[in-house]
Amino acid sequence: MKKLLLSLVFAANFSAIAADNKEELPKQTLFTNVHVWDGTSEGITKKINVLVEGNLIKKVRADKSDARKDATIINGDGKVLMPGLIDTHTHIAVPEQLDVLTNKVDTIYWGISAAQVTQDWLMRGYTTVRDAGGPAVAVMKAVKDGKLIGPRVYPSGQVISQTSGHGDHRDYNTPHPNLPGNTPQKMQKPEGLEMICDGVAEVLRCSREVLRTGATQLKVMVGGGASSSFGPLYTLQYLPEEIEAAVRAARDYGTYVMVHAYHDESIFRAMNAGVRSIEHGTLMSEKGMKAIMEKDAWISPYFTMLSLPWETIEAYVGPQNAPKAKQIYDGAKNQLRILKESGYDKIAFGADVVGPLSVQQTANNEFVVRAKYWKPVEVLKQATFNNARMLKEETGLRNPYQAGDLGVIKAGAYADMILVDGNPLEKIELLVDPTNTLKVIMKDGMVYKNTL
Ligand SMILES: [Zn+2]
After folding, report:
1. How far does the chain reach from its first CA to its final CA, in angstroms?
2. Is residue 220 within 8 Å of residue 242, measured between CB atoms?
3. Is 171 buried (19+), middle (13-18) or exposed (0-12) by CB count in 10 A?
4. Ligand 1 centre distance from Cα of residue 352 (Å)
5. 89 C-alpha vs ligand 1 centroid, how far in Å?
């Protein structure tokens, strides 16, 4: 009797599951009458339909009959459908100036600000970001769990820095967090921005700790930067064996290391240690570029600052950091020339904007600055197909998004797309005004904006 009862229960459950399956066919959306730029082509394919099923693109050049009757129809009316934008150097979880986060708000306020910034990134057309430092692992999780609207995130978590390095943002009198008896300061806590570690053993521990908490790659500081007070720009940070330790820890976890580096010497050291992505490289010469190309590595530069007059940058960074920032500002122009002349294709697209929402919103200016040097289609490729290629090839087993390709419109790719009112291949400035020009934003098959 008991057995019979059990099998009845099972039978009932199975029929319930079967009934559910019938009702829950994956949702379909059909974009009709759209001009498509697919992320790789030189031009646009005119007036076709694109079918989305679930979170993937099912068919490009679809017939209306390919879609089920219950499919949602979005009539694109001749607007341009392109892959969602990707930025490879964000700080979505550093949503205020560091001094504000350290001294003027608590962790809850910090988190709420990060949520606001994250949502705004998606609404500016970015469906994926690689985050270059800050508590973005939590953001990735919140987005994945549906608690927060935002792009896909490849978080680096806390940056790894040597004492006095670009990730050591202590005040002059703040004691070292690793010395016995001292408690870590807010910035050095797991929900903060950075880890300070010296020597191979500590770098290994920090690397594994960051990976343990969910980072998809490691961010290591190997030279001076603008926002840190005790590491002049010319400094070399971390010994070769310390960088190698981080690289090996990352490799063992199926992933890679990206480094903050401005000048040739830090680039040489990083390339020799097996680093896969140079962040910035702003003060590089042709020699630094050659070192990157020889290792077939990536360079992720940033030029957004060049869209603003120097005086605006000066006011933002403050008098202490202004001399450094000026060097970077001037270096960026030289770097643009080197990158363009190199003809290298592993140039990523990232804006490296840090701080309040209004600053983060300047990230879209990156398109316009780059388009002074490259053709719009080349810039758009950097921000879609190219960036996606980097994320796929370098993140390896650690890649959280493996069900489809990113950065392209093709069958089987993730349905991450934006519908632009106008043709960005002819007028890239359209992407600087996303509120008005982006009519539809879809990520993972879900529509987050539709103002058609
Ligand atoms: Zn950065």
Report:
1. 61
2. no
3. exposed
4. 5
5. 6
- Please, what are the domains in the chain? 25-84+407-450 (2.30.40.10), 85-373 (3.20.20.140)
> Average pLDDT of 217-245?
92
**214 phi/psi in degrees, rounded to 5:** 120, 10
pTM of the model: 0.93
Q: Distance from the CA of 428 to the center of ligand 1, in angstroms?
A: 24
Q: How far is the CA of 21 from the centre of ligand 1 (A)?
A: 45
Residue 279 Cα to ligand 1 middle (Å): 8
The predicted-structure confidence for 309-341, as pLDDT tens digits, reads as follows 999 989 888 888 888 889 999 999 999 999 999
Alpha carbon distance 266, 262 (integer Å): 7
pLDDT per residue as tens digits for the range 361-374: 999 999 999 999 99
Tokens matching residue 159: 């940056």
Q: Which of 344, 425, 427, 421 is nearest to 380 (CA)?
A: 425
CA–CA distance, 170 with 188 (Å, rounded to integer): 9
